[in-house]
Specification:
Elements lengths: L9 E5 L3 H13 L4 E5 L2 H10 L4 E4 L9 H7 L1
Parallel strand pairs: 1-2, 1-3
């Protein structure tokens, strides 16, 4: 597998479950991602994207009450 340089990449994690959100953030940070932001709701994710362009978005489908992950990605 090729080595990929994530140092200049910003990543947004959209995940309802706190423990999995933290795990993903640690994994991406350990992989060298330059910036990793984690949110727990679709509303918060859309607000973050209004103020920042992310290179990579990791989005769960089940985000609890409100928007699903598909709704968030369609809106973005």
């Amino acid at each position: 597998m090729a080595n990929i340089d994530y140092s200049g990449r910003s990543v947004l994690i959209i995940e309802q479950t706190e423990s999995f959100r933290a795990l993903l953030k640690k994994m991406l940070t350990d992989m060298g991602a330059g910036e990793v932001v984690a949110t727990s709701s679709g509303k918060e994710a859309v607000e973050n994207c209004a103020n920042h362009d992310y290179h990579i978005i990791v989005c769960d489908y089940d985000l609890g009450p409100g928007k699903t992950g598909l709704h968030v990605l369609e809106e973005l």
